């Protein structure tokens, strides 16, 4: 992986890691190598190409997490596995300090499908990428400007399982309400035309490094 150190900015085309740490554990359980599209004081935009090898959580016996009944989904023992991202690629947009990132999805032939607001801890930058913690609750946004909440059942179960305190859950809900205000006002990034963006066809697919779960030597907001 390449990348600038600390709070400096990465250049377009550089490869970094977009990671999530487990709720309450601090261990990296999701790692996605991505290509930097834009990195400014206002916005980090990255591209996750189709076929990218990633790390994802699975149950200890290898069962996909989403196949576990909701009641035990967050208490059953877990591990991680390497797997390739299939289907279309994903463009991820994140403004510093925002408690969410916005992902863009396309169908085959670059037919734009939707935006996805992933509620999460504001990302921490380090020399090899960014780290965050997923907050379970999400929002889908469609080209006709309609929107809907996603994963409310998982958000509720995470609280029952003790992965979020009531105070933290309320902060996440408040972040979601602020995101909805942004959607209803059709503010950035929804009005910025990112659905028309296309990756450089010369970009190679980033590789997943052996030390994908390494502890950063330096972090910065």
Automatic annotation (TrEMBL):
Keyword Hydrolase on entry: yes
Cell membrane as UniProt keyword: no
UniProt keyword annotations, A-Z: Hydrolase
Matching SUPFAM superfamilies: FomD-like
InterPro entries: DUF402, FomD-like_sf, Ntdp-like
Superkingdom, taxonomy of origin: Bacteria
Domain DUF402, first and last residues per copy: 68-187
Matching PANTHER family: PTHR39159, UPF0374 PROTEIN YGAC
Protein name per its UniProtKB record: DUF402 domain-containing protein
């Amino acid at each position: 992986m390449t990348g600038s150190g600390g709070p400096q900015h990465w250049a377009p085309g550089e490869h970094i890691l977009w990671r999530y740490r487990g709720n309450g554990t601090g261990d990296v359980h999701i790692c996605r190598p991505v290509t930097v599209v834009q990195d400014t004081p206002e916005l980090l935009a990255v591209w996750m190409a189709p076929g990218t090898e990633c790390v994802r959580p699975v149950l200890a016996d290898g069962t996909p997490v989403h196949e576990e009944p909701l009641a035990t989904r967050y208490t059953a023992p877990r591990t991680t596995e390497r797997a390739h991202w299939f289907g279309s690629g994903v463009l991820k947009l994140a403004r510093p300090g925002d408690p969410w990132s916005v992902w863009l999805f396309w169908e085959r032939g670059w037919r734009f499908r939707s935006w996805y607001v992933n509620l999460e801890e504001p990302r921490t930058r380090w020399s090899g990428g960014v780290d965050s913690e997923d907050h379970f609750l999400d929002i889908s946004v469609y080209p006709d400007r309609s929107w809907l909440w996603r994963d409310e059942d998982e958000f509720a179960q995470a609280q029952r399982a003790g992965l979020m305190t009531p105070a933290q859950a309320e902060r996440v809900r408040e972040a979601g309400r602020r995101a909805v205000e942004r959607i209803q006002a059709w503010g950035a990034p929804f009005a910025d035309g990112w659905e028309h963006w296309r990756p450089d066809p010369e970009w190679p697919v980033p590789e997943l490094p052996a030390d994908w779960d390494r502890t950063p030597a330096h972090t910065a907001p």
